Amino acid sequence: MSFHYVNKLPTPEEIxxxxxxxxxxxxLKRRRDKEISDVITGKSNKFLVIIGPCSADNExxxxxxxxxxxxxxxxxxxxxxxxxxxxxxxxxxxxxGYKGIVSQPDPEKKPDFTAGLIAxxxxxxxxxxxxxLTAADEMLxxxxxxxxxxxxxxxxxxxxxxxDQQHRMxxxxxxxxxxxxxxxxxxxxxxxxxxxxxxxxxxxxYRGYEVQTxxxxxxxxxxxxxxxxxxxxxxxxxxxxxxxxxxLYNERDLLNPACIVDANHNNSNKEYKQQxxxxxxxxxxxxxxxxxxxxxxxxxxxxxxxxxxxxxGEGIYGKSITDPCLGWEASERLIYxxxxxx
Length: 342
Hints:
39% of the residues lie in helices and 16% in strands. The protein has eleven helices and twelve strands. Strands 2-1-12-11-8-5-4-3 form an eight-stranded parallel beta sheet. The chain has a two-stranded antiparallel sheet with strand order 6-7. Helix 3 packs parallel to helix 4, helix 6 crosses helix 7 and helix 9 runs parallel beside helix 11. The chain is globular, with a radius of gyration of 19 Å.
């Protein structure tokens, strides 16, 4: 057989029962979900800043980062909503490399999915406890939603997943803001079709059940740049790109037109320091055009304690082991700059 069944994983219900969210944190999540929802629906003019490491590989370093973030949040909370990136699953283009804490709770050891699910959940709950901030994660594997549905306030669907029917239908059952990224080809119609699918109800099979969903009106677009046929990065955060996206939104029957701009990935050609310039250009475009102001609801920034990245095993605390990130000092200044723009 091609499949070797190693272990039967605990169910989402078993993991949630073993590591429950305390009542006061459940209420915190309810409030945060509402605040973020109000931004997406246009009831609030606050601006979302989804910021944190490319991959959340170490609980201590991630929680130290977030404890710093909450001190900044106190100073900008009248204008911004800071959403920590706690990304626990990482897509790998070739299938090789570190796949996130859910796969490998210790990046230097073999995969252990049961330990990974526990490590992921403990980290998210710990981060909520110390900061009062609920987080964003990427939904790389739709079957994992049950393990995190009571702890996340934002979900991203990546460029390689956004065309997948199972991802689209699963998002239609989420009750939190969900960003659908443009595919690596950059085709905006694919992204908008994904938003349409996620906003509508569906019947499908999920984790051994026949399920029905009611549609997610908080599904929206995320621009992350693209790759042309020669493998070169093509940005899509410029003023003209945002106007084009708005035009396409207006041609479709979609709820709550909204866009988040991912400042890294192909928008920056993974030149992480360019995120600062890109974010400032996006903020300038919002000032130039009321239409863009109402369309662009936030930015995504990859940031960690130490700038750049390292290989697994180098052991530099708070430095990314996947894509390079802005360091803390530059990130803190950028958040204050965003607040001044808005």
